[in-house]
Amino acid sequence: MLMDTPIHKDIVTLQSHILAQQDKNPQSTGTLSWILSALSISAKVIADHVRRARLEDVLGHAGADNVQGEQQQKLDVISNEVLIRTLGSREGVAIVASEENEEPVIIRNDTAGERRYCVLFDPLDGSSNLDVCGGVGTIFSILRQDRRASDAEASLLQPGEQQVAAGYILYGSSTVFCVSLGDGVDMFVLDPAIGAFLRVEEKLKIPVANKSYSLNEGNRLSFPEGYRDYLAWAQENGYSSRYVGAMVADVHRILLKGGVFIYPPTAKAPNGKLRLMYEANPMAMLIEQAGGKALAGLDSNGEAQRIMALKPKNIHERCTVILGSPDEVDHVVRHL
Ligand code: AHM
Ligand code: MG
Known about the structure:
Elements: H1 14-24, H2 31-51, E1 61-65, E2 71-73, H3 74-88, E3 93-98, E4 105-106, E5 117-125, E6 136-144, H4 152-156, E7 165-171, E8 175-180, E9 185-191, E10 196-201, E11 212-214, H5 225-236, E12 240-241, H6 247-257, E13 260-263, H7 276-289, E14 293-298, E15 304-306, E16 321-324, H8 326-335
Parallel strand pairs: 3-5, 11-12, 11-13
Antiparallel strand pairs: 1-2, 3-4, 5-6, 6-7, 7-8, 8-9, 9-10, 13-16, 14-15, 14-16
The chain binds 2,5-anhydro-1,6-di-O-phosphono-D-mannitol and magnesium ion (MG).
The site of 2,5-anhydro-1,6-di-O-phosphono-D-mannitol has 11 residues, from strand 5.
């Protein structure tokens, strides 16, 4: 039997959504909208490469290591170039910084004139999942350029609370674009037939609780004691374990279904593995905007420390990540 074609009552593309947001602010110059449109174009180009992964020669190592000492996959390099090129063509972009580049890339360095932005990104997060056709994603964070800063890196070193917008694109069974402009989280899915991202959820709310944790349990023996205690408690209390190993896919599931995502300190990564400025901060903004909590463990006084309150000292620094449903984050913190 043929199913009825679903008719969207309201067809809102990412483009029209952004323009509507822009119209709400009379002072808006449209600069941010152009940057988001560059990100949406990049997402379509990268999605196309990911879809053709075994047909085109884009899998495997590019032959170099990135600044983190990790092997770059060919698609990491391609995605990075796509983002730098599309963002670089936007007048409103001053500086970009990427997981794949040791130094920030200055696009325009005149400090006069209109307001400009800095865009930080992980071009293809979880790229080791590519070889097995698993979900991967792009994560981005947008900050205002700090014109008083002495150099490009100093201009970027702002706490996550100052993000103007943040989001991710998940290249999964469909291509999903989740974004927050500081007023909730909206979700779009790429309709390949028309080449546009269509809005499927407005002002997403994360479930308050869900008995599910997401972390690399293989590292359990080197977790600090509190995390091991939490795991023992969760297992005694009937929790499920779900871990893709690609942050975008894991956080996307948690945003929709609830639960907690944790990357604790380990023997190999004593400060945690995930990067504060282009992985933890943007995800923290989305999770908080959806009603969740996003912490970097406890501070020296034993108080829970918000990821977005951390003051970064360098663009590639790492931090502990505990984020998700508010009740589930509280359960973790209780054990630390
Ligand atoms: P990447 O940016 O080099 O792809 O690494 C980040 C990824 C995250 O997507 C994921 O949450 C984490 O690394 C998985 O790490 P592990 O394999 O140690 O569990
Ligand atoms: Mg990454």
